[in-house]
Design goal:
By secondary structure, the chain is α+β, with helices and mostly antiparallel strands. The protein is 34% helix and 38% strand.
C-alpha cells in the first residue's frame, strides 16, 4: 500500500465514526497524475446521488505530459462501493450533523483506493480538548524519553 494523500483537516474538524474503502473511476491521465502525487483532498466531500456515491471537489492536477485531452481538475468522480455500503452511508447521512468525507488516498495493487469516513462535526471546544490532549501526550512522551536516556 503506497500512500498518496491524507486529509489531516478531516481529523481536526470531525469525529470519524465509520470507515469504508472505495475504488475510483478515473481516466488515464488522472491515474498518472495521482501516481506522481499531485492530489489534494482538503476541500472535497462525498455525496450520494441516484444510488451512486460521488466525490466532489477532489483536485487532481493535470498530467505533466498529457495532451489536449487532459482531464478536468475538479470534476465529480464516481466511487466504487457495494450497494449495501451505499445504502448504509445514505442512512448515516440522513442523521443530523453527519457527513461523508475522504480520509486517505492510496494505491493498492496498482489501483487507486480512497478511504472514506462517516463524520460528525466538532465544536470549537472539542477541537481545543483534542489539541490539549495531544500536547499532554507529547509532553509525557518527551519526559519519559529524557528520563531513560
Amino acid at each position: 500500500m503506497l500512500s498518496i494523500a491524507k486529509n489531516r483537516k478531516a481529523y481536526h474538524d470531525y469525529f470519524i465514526n465509520d470507515t469504508f474503502e472505495a475504488g475510483l473511476v478515473l481516466t488515464g491521465t488522472e491515474i498518472k497524475s495521482i501516481r506522481q502525487g499531485h492530489v489534494q483532498l482538503k476541500e472535497s466531500y462525498i455525496s450520494i446521488r441516484d444510488g451512486e456515491a460521488w466525490i466532489k471537489g477532489m483536485h487532481i492536477a493535470p498530467y505533466d505530459f498529457g495532451n489536449r485531452f487532459n482531464h478536468d481538475e475538479t470534476r465529480d468522480r464516481k466511487l466504487l462501493l457495494h450497494s449495501h455500503e451505499i445504502k448504509k452511508l445514505f442512512k448515516e447521512i440522513q442523521l443530523q450533523g453527519n457527513t461523508i468525507v475522504p480520509l486517505h488516498l492510496y494505491l493498492k495493487n496498482g489501483r487507486a483506493k480512497l478511504e472514506i469516513g462517516v463524520a460528525k462535526g466538532k465544536h470549537l471546544y472539542d477541537k481545543r480538548a483534542t489539541e490539549r490532549d495531544r500536547s499532554l501526550k507529547r509532553e509525557a512522551q518527551k519526559a519519559t524519553k529524557e528520563r531513560y536516556q
